[in-house]
Amino acid sequence: MVMNNIESRFEFRIFGTCLGLTEQRMRAITPCESITESREIYLLARDSVYDKNIKIRQGKLELKRLIEHQQGLQRWQPDGQWEFPVSLITIVNLLNPGARLTQAQDPYAMLSRGDLLKLVTHPTAHLHRANVYKCRYRFILPACDAEFDRLLVNGAAIESIAIESVDPRAVLEALAALGLEVSENQSYPLALSRILGITRLPHEEIYG
C-alpha cells in the first residue's frame, strides 16, 4: 500500500445540471488554472453509508474516509492507495461487502483490477459500480482550491462544483462569495448513489 502524505481537507461539493451561473461567478474571481480529463470507477455500497470514497483511478485503488462534519462541511482524509494486484482480504476490509465473498476463495488471493470488477458484480457483494468521466476546470480561490466539473456518470451528463481547504473558514467564505451557502453538500458517494437509484432522492414524493 502506498500512503498519501496529504492533509485532511474540508470539502463542500454540489451537483446539478445547470451550474453555469456559479461557474461564471468563480471565473469572475479568478481565472481557470488548468483543465484535466480522467476516467474513474467508483465502488458504491448498498448500505446507505457514505463515509468511504473508493475508486479506481489511473490503475490504482484509492480510499478517502470521511472523518468529521463541521459547519456543514465534510472533512475527508486520504487513507491509502493500492497498486494491483490487491489481496482479497484487503478488498473485503475496504469495501465490507460481506463475509460470504471469502467462503469459496482464499482470502489472501491476489486480485487484478479485472478480478475486482468481477467481484463487484457478485450477487452477495452488495456493491455497485459507477463509471465516471471527468473534465475538471481548476481554480485557486483565497486559501482554497476549487473546481468546476463536467461529468458523465454511466453516460448521463451532470455538473459539479467543489471547494476545499485545510481551513474550514476559508471554505465558508468562498461559499458565501459564490452564493452557495444554502446548497446541499453532497459527496461523490452520496451523489452517485442517488443518480444510480441506490439511495432515495430528497423530496422524491413530489414525483409521479
Structural class: alpha+beta
From the alpha carbons, calculate the radius of gyration and give it in angstroms. Answer: 18 Å
Shape: globular
The string of secondary-structure elements, in order, is: EHEEEEEHEHEEEHH
Give me the number of helical elements.
5
In CATH, the architecture of the domain at 9-79 and 128-200 is Beta Barrel
Q: Please name the CATH topology of the domain at 9-79 and 128-200.
A: Hypothetical Protein Pfu-838710-001
Give, in spatial order, the strands making up the sheet with the most strands: 1-5-4-3-2-8-9-10
What percent of residues are in strands?
Answer: 35-45%
CATH superfamily of the domain at 9-79 and 128-200: Hypothetical Protein Pfu-838710-001
Amino-to-carboxy terminus distance: 48 Å
Mean pLDDT, as a whole number? 90
Please write the CATH class name of the domain at 9-79 and 128-200: Mainly Beta
The share of residues in helices is 10-25%
State the total count of DSSP E strands. Answer: 10
- Uncertain stretches of 5 or more adjacent residues: none
